[in-house]
Write a structure and sequence with these properties.
single chain, 197 residues, 5-stranded antiparallel beta sheet
Length: 197
């Protein structure tokens, strides 16, 4: 399998661009999803996870293929300039073995380490808890924290200030950060009622 130059360019850009606060991750993942779908048989979805200081940020794109995942590839994207940040790309395909050549080619082309590409280990963890990926409940909590930070950003704080405030409120009230985030979201919904209500 020969990888398209555009796909390699997108993967390379993803590897280095994640440290920039101006990158639109959803747009980047959508473009990458289309390129991977053209290169690999029966792609079901791709998920980009960025972990910064223990906080998980996740963006997913589905291809519209409703097959059950039969193969998976988790790429650890390394940027030599980055410290304290983990970046993972999880690709699911509905065809068994579809990601083997892709993994080898991407690892070689991007000069990723030997343990940067992990095949089929994440099939059992799709929608379930696993030791290498946060479970569904933890991802829901991460999502709520991220949304609450967004509410605080809309109120004039930076992302760092918003995260610090959630942690500070959690410490003061001796409740989990996710619970403080849920309260923040409930309060925000009171201020900005959903459209159509």
């Amino acid at each position: 399998m020969e990888l398209q130059p555009r796909l390699l360019a997108e993967l390379s850009r993803l590897t280095t661009a994640l440290d920039s606060s101006t990158v639109d991750l959803a747009q980047l993942v959508d473009r990458l999803s289309a390129d991977i779908d053209a290169a690999v048989a029966a792609v079901v979805s791709i998920t980009l996870t960025v972990i910064v200081d223990g906080e998980h940020f996740e963006v997913s794109a589905a291809t519209g293929n409703d097959q059950e995942p039969a193969s998976s590839l988790r790429l650890t994207l390394a940027d030599p300039r980055s410290t304290g940040t983990e970046k993972h790309l999880l690709i699911l395909s509905g065809t068994a073995g579809a990601l083997v050549d892709f993994a080898a080619n991407v690892s070689y082309s991007l000069e990723l380490g030997g343990d940067s590409a992990v095949l089929d280990r994440h099939l059992g963890s799709v929608g379930e808890s696993a030791s290498t990926e946060p479970g569904a409940r933890e991802l829901a909590a991460v999502s709520e924290v991220n949304q609450a930070i967004g509410v605080l950003i809309a109120g004039g704080r930076s992302a760092t200030e918003g995260r610090a405030q959630l942690h500070r409120l959690a410490a003061q009230s001796r409740t989990p950060t996710a619970e403080v985030a849920r309260r923040t979201l409930r309060d925000a919904r009171g201020w900005f009622p959903p459209k159509g209500s």
